[in-house]
Automatic annotation (TrEMBL):
This is WYL domain-containing protein. It holds the Pfam family WCX. It comes from Iamia majanohamensis. Residues 142-198 form the WYL domain. Residues 232-303 form the WCX domain.
Amino acid sequence: MASDKVSRLLALLQVLLDAGHPLTAREVRARVPGYSEDDDAFRRTFERDKNELGEILGHPVRAEPVPGTDPPVDGYRLRADEAYLADPGLTPEERRALAVAASAVRLAGIDPSGGVTKLGAGVAEAGGRASPPTELPVDDAVLALFEAVAERRTATFAYNGHDREVHPLRLRFTKGRWYLTAWDTGRDGERQFRLDRLGGPVRTGPRHGFAPRPVTSVDALDEPWAMGDGPVTPVRVRIDAPQVDAARRAAPRADVEDEADGGVVLTLGVRNVDALVGFVLGFLDEAEVLDPPEVRARLLDHVRLRLTPVGGDR
């Protein structure tokens, strides 16, 4: 199932659970991101989503009259007792794999065995694993932001010397650090935050403090030149033919221009020039920055600095 469809179904589930009264189709479209503005396309997609959500829950999403409408209009909502997920039908091999994963990695100080047991996968399924699991480090900020992501709580914290108010969308642990993807309300855009750079505690607001929003910067953590608060600068980087495959893998979101000799020119959206310099230098003499001139100059200055012997003539 495509990630945008999964996000839409999860948002639909949450909206129907939060509804205090039956929501009309028009209200659903306004509250759930991802639906088409075209009426016919919306109706087709909404009907498919209702059917699939009903299959997941184990019973159909039923229509009921919206109070106070004349003529009557159908609406939709879910009550908490209707939201328990059906048995996912894991095979013994799948339960064993889940148990192994839960026994191999966990958040420091948090035992996942209760949740795993509810899916029918206990320690025995893991083959009696005796070695201690790898623990991902957590602190008060990580725990607060986990809650904020799960319950759509607005979060505030200090970052790079500035107070930030964000709508947390996703947490990710990669390369030894926690990162938060969030909608920055002050900058009106999606941003990535390294949690080890937070200055002070994280404060969170009430549950359901903002509407569901899909994550758009799926690959930003793997493209460090895209991270930061500054404006995005298009930078063109030429890659020689022997390194083209590696460059495409390292920069999957880049616009690519093929060249006659087998090389390519990548156009990257750059916020962090120093990170881009590191990317280009990784290809040695088989990559160069074409433009803009100021970014090319930054790269050349970096190369000259590295080639100048300590204490030598300049």
